[in-house]
Queue: 4 jobs
Job 1
Amino acid sequence: MVTLKGKNIYLRALEPEDLDFVYIVENDEQIWEMSSTQTPYSRFLIKEYLENSHKDIYEVKQLRLVICSNDHATLGLIDLFDFNPMHNRAGVGVLIAEKENRGMGYGAEALELIVNYGFTHLHLHQLYANISEDNITSIKLFENRGFNKVGVKKEWNRVKDIYKDEFLYQLVYVH
């Protein structure tokens, strides 16, 4: 059995009981910029998404896991997306939902677990992250885990009436 358990957190599959949590996260306009969301999601669509979340990463090309504290509190989400088994790569994104839980090492621990899972169990060669130029917290998180900034997508994302650069970070597995 694959254990996605760290010192202070563990990662688990989405469950139907996560409907309210995912609904709140996906409809939080404060984080829409990170996910390129433009419109709210209905409970119906999120329920449908949760009902299909058991599908294999090879089929749907993504994996979303819930970040939980050891006392089983739901802290956030971590995603592998754009999974490409031919080129052995995937994107990764991390979200700690509540501000009071940020900066406590939960995101770093979750990132460590998913990186190890990706390289060990999915046999990935590389992971990448797309991070807005002003998301200093995420930049530090990924750099501290060994991701390197390999590119800048100039004026990539429009946020309200301004364009922001997006940085491309990459972690290549070293054998």
Note: The beta strands are 9-13, 63-69, 74-84, 89-96, 126-132, 148-159, 162-172.
Job 2
Amino acid sequence: MAPLTLALLLLLLLAGPPASAAPPTCYSRMLGLSQEITRDFQLLQAVEPEVCVRYLPRLYLDIHNYCVLAKLRDFVASPQCWRVARVDALKDKVRKLYTIMNSFCRRDLVFLSDDCSALEYPVPVTAGLPDHQ
């Protein structure tokens, strides 16, 4: 083996695997953005002193629930908290997710339920996967 080829091979081995094996997909973008919005909403409720935040529609998102589209529309159309910077930023993210779901990624999404009441309360987060022994 030529010294240059050996040096390149060694360099590739030391560099390790690429950071991301696959480019983000429409689905992964929707899922990530919905989780970010839910987190931001919970933080907004905990931190924002504005009384109006209490009257915003609840925002716990599940992109596999058909009712999520109506939930996103209701949140953006909500007249509460006009001109509150954090709420405006959150509404921008919600608009972006709605556009992605309804336009760009419409064919990549599968709705598994249409339980609108499930979007009213946060889904409990599990610490880890169960053991399969």
Note: Residues 25-119 form one domain.
Job 3
Amino acid sequence: MTVPQITRSVLVGLIGAGIQASRSPALHMREGAENGLSYRYDLIDTAVRGVGPEALPALLDEAEGRGFAGLNITHPFKQAILPLLTSLSDDARAIGAVNTVLFRGGERIGHNTDWWGFAEAFRRGLPGAALHHVVQLGAGGAGAATAHAALSLGVRNLLLFDLESQRAEQLAADLSERFPDRTVGAGRDLAPSVASAGGLIHATPTGMKAHPGLPFPAHLLHRELWVAEIVYFPLETELLRSARAHGCRTLDGGGMAVFQAVEAFRLFTGIVPDAERMLRHFHTMTAAGGPE
């Protein structure tokens, strides 16, 4: 007698604002199927629901009540969610931002897979990049992760810029404490800072479909500068187009999107996914221009 095989079910999702174009559902669900799982990934889009950060407690309750294994968290909630969690991983606590939440036995555990995702993409996409002096735009949840990654990769001097100067100052202070052998500061004048930098990390929403344009005037770019982008929809942002036109080495946001998902998948399921397969799937979706 043949015993029917029981398929393990996994339900996860993503909380963010304006996330209908996210590639995360397709990326996760395909990898789930490849591992023999019944894997469902739902979008919880606060823009569609017409709510803001005040709804986060109810959204977490809803997901936990529906039996979610966990959630990904994206803009603009990676820091707002911190007080709603019962514990944090070492990485999430150090970075001060969460992009992955696990529901385990009544606990809500926050993790940060963004920093590793950016670091892995950078190692692969910009080998040999100059790391002495780097400028970063953005000191929010994503910026906290990319800055941590940059210093972990060996950046010696990091200058942070943010429209909220106090946020850049606070992040610089936190990073200086964690990386006492590096120089980290909050920038004041972008033009001379970019002119003397060997690299630039862009960690703001500018360039997304909902926030088109450049984060600063294109004439500040120069050929000695590498430019790393975190925006991945569209994959070809105006910043990357301008940077390449100025002769810069560039890194798009696709690698970070994939590799943070690789680690989130492992946390959600306990299964180590095939990172190369997920990367191929991402590039296939991008080339086809299909749903995210």
Note: The mean pLDDT is 95.
Job 4
Amino acid sequence: MAAIEPGHPVLALAHNLGRRLALTAEIQRFRLAEEQVESSRRVTELIETIKRKQKELVHAKHYEKTAYIRQLEQELEQIHHELDHLPIVREYQQSQVEMNELLQTLQRVVADSVSTRLDVEVGQDPGGGGCGSGGPCGCS
């Protein structure tokens, strides 16, 4: 597949679309939630604790310390639960879902528009699956 040359009109349209997407409510909400999560001292503390406990768990498994493994797994589960139930984390996760849905919808619209105009089904080889040579495989 050949690369699109710089300055191609399609690239200009894509850049314009990207700028417009950045202004949508879904993307703005995601960025705000992301900033809040990244600047939260509590989130940072919990993530650091999770990383430390995961390292401890690796060592405990290496040395086959069964009781300590169970204890660490329980502690990790509790920390993950606390992290997942922080309001700013829940908001971040929800905004991420909404942003992904927007981007997937956009991808489907573009793919459907292109495939309709090219008479090609999305996700299939435009050549119909054969080599096109009409040779020994019998395709044409």
Note: The chain has a mean pLDDT of 88.
